[in-house]
Design brief:
This protein is mainly α. It is built from 7 helices and no strands.
Length: about 150
């Protein structure tokens, strides 16, 4: 049985929306991170090697920022592929959540920030329908991550 609150139709349209932005995973992932670091400078403190970078231009050129942007998008892509299989979905989200909670000690509010920036970028590039069909997925991801954090005593 599924812990997911998405219907089959919602899963399909979410995948369609995600595919559009995932085609350029590295560029779009980089844009999302650069926006997060620029609009929420405190998030940079988690990344020791990004700390000294102040200009968005500098961040965009950084191999480390680009690499992490791609990593974030790949992780979400894995989740999107398993939206119709809660066991597989949780198999991806759980270790990711634990790593960020225990090892990296990342404040869970940052997941919501990054998801909101992804939705914003989707809307800018592909319109409101695209954003709307992916919104439930970001809620699902953030809810599960928050639950993992609670289990880890956050």
């Amino acid at each position: 049985s599924s812990t997911m609150s998405l219907s089959e139709a919602e899963v399909q349209s979410a995948r369609g929306a995600w595919e559009k932005i995932y085609v350029d995973a590295e560029d779009n992932g980089t844009t999302v991170l650069v926006r997060m670091f620029t609009e929420h400078p405190d998030t940079k403190s988690y990344f020791t090697h990004f700390k000294g970078m102040d200009s968005a231009e500098e961040m965009k050129q950084s191999d480390q920022v680009r690499g992490h942007g791609k990593k974030v998008f790949s992780a979400i892509n894995d989740m999107v592929q398993h939206l119709d299989n809660s066991e597989a979905f949780l198999g991806i989200v759980t270790p990711l959540g634990k790593k960020h909670a225990i090892q990296l000690k990342i404040d869970p509010k940052n997941f919501r920030i990054i998801c909101d920036i992804i939705l914003q970028l989707m809307e800018e590039k592909f319109g409101g329908d695209c954003k709307a069909s992916f919104e439930k997925v970001t809620n699902e991801i953030c809810t599960h991550l928050n639950n993992i954090y609670k289990e880890e005593g956050w």
